Amino acid sequence: MKHKTVAVLFAAVLLTGCATMTPVPTVAPTPEAPRVLRVMTYSSFDISEQVVAEFEATHNAQLQFLDAGDTGTMVSTAILSMENPQADVMYGIDNTFLSRALQAGIFEPYEAEALASIPDEYELDDQHRVSPVDFGDVCLNYDRSYFEEQGLAVPDSLEALADPAYRGLLVAENPASSSPGLAFLLATIVTLGEENHLDYWEALVENDILIVDSWDTAYYSEFSGGAFSEGTRPLVVSYATSPAAEVYFSEEPLDVSPTGAVVAPGTCFRQIEFVGILKNGQNRDLAEAFVEYVLGASFQGDIPLHMFVFPVNETVALPEVFAEHALRAEQPATMSVDAIEQNRESWVQAWIDVVLQ
């Protein structure tokens, strides 16, 4: 009986053990919510939904774009909120305002692997606090039909704009608030000389130049040549690539853009735009991934027909309409970031005293 009792107890233990080893159904883990990456940029920023969706899907992220106005306003906002930034990344700061941001220390260094595909000429910060993303030439744009109907020659130099024949025809942006405006001011300094450029601006004021705060206002509200422009002035400070946009967005097929760009030597300023990780921002790894992404083929290939500037990644093929109608100045005015940093504030203040007095 003793052996039988032991056998029964042993069998019970085996059954109990088997019961505890029965597989328990697994429950799928709850997917992690997408992390938010905040990107501060300027008002005219534009990129396709597909490109945004690709980044978000790849990195389980949600991109939030903060419209911070024109470039000058954007940089000022970032500096003022540096301790508690409104965004994690800034897209679109250019070489005319770059020195101000670097001096203020708003960016964290990051050397992107994708820089291997970018020509060195566009990398203006050897500490890699920002990475170049695109470039274009700020120059005069003109309304073709106006000059044809008036039988008036298109101005082919900066000096020509002071001629009474062009009185009341030009609208330009304020260099204190607008990067194209500052670029145009720098072009006058480089081409005409620091000692002469204020006399030149006095002549433009006498010739009834109109100054506005932003590129959007200048091009869409005051310029007469664009398909969506509502203004009366046939000359505007814009980009050498703007005529390509007019062809691309035209309701009717066009062989020639209704607007043209003046790219004569010394009339344009080469503008390079950058992306940078803001100090004290969130999700540093996601911010780094975004920098790599905007330098890659998907984002770079989307730039020409959305922001109408040239991508810095030269391995990317340009769309046909852009390649045919976007211009690039062969002899643009250029200036080092250091020179801009040392003189920008005094140059802008002197300009204000002469032009806006």
Plain-language structure description:
With 357 residues, this protein is α/β, with parallel strands linked by helices. The protein has 2 domains: 35-135 and 270-325, Periplasmic binding protein-like II (D-Maltodextrin-Binding Protein, domain 2, 3-Layer(aba) Sandwich), CATH 3.40.190.10; 136-269 and 335-355, D-Maltodextrin-Binding Protein, domain 2, CATH 3.40.190.10. It contains 14 helices and 11 strands. It has helices spanning 2-20, 49-59, 71-80, 98-104, 144-150, 179-192, 197-206, 215-222, 242-248, 284-294, 297-302, 304-307, 320-325, 337-355, and strands at 35-41, 61-67, 89-94, 107-108, 131-143, 170-173, 210-212, 235-239, 259-262, 269-278, 310-311. Strands 1, 2, 3, 4, 5, 6, 7, 8, 9, 10 and 11 form an 11-stranded mixed β-sheet that branches. Strand 1 (35-41), helix 2 and strand 2 (61-67) form a beta-alpha-beta unit.
Brief descriptors of the model:
D-Maltodextrin-Binding Protein, domain 2; alpha/beta; single chain; 39% helix; 2 domains
Q: How would you name the CATH homologous superfamily of the largest domain? A: Periplasmic binding protein-like II
Radius of gyration: 28 Å
Helix-strand pattern? HEHEHEHEEHEHHEHEHEEHHHEHH
Low-confidence runs of at least 5 consecutive residues = 1-20
What is the second-level CATH architecture of the largest domain? 3-Layer(aba) Sandwich
Distance between the termini: 117 Å
Query: Number of DSSP helices?
Result: 14
Helix content: 25-40%
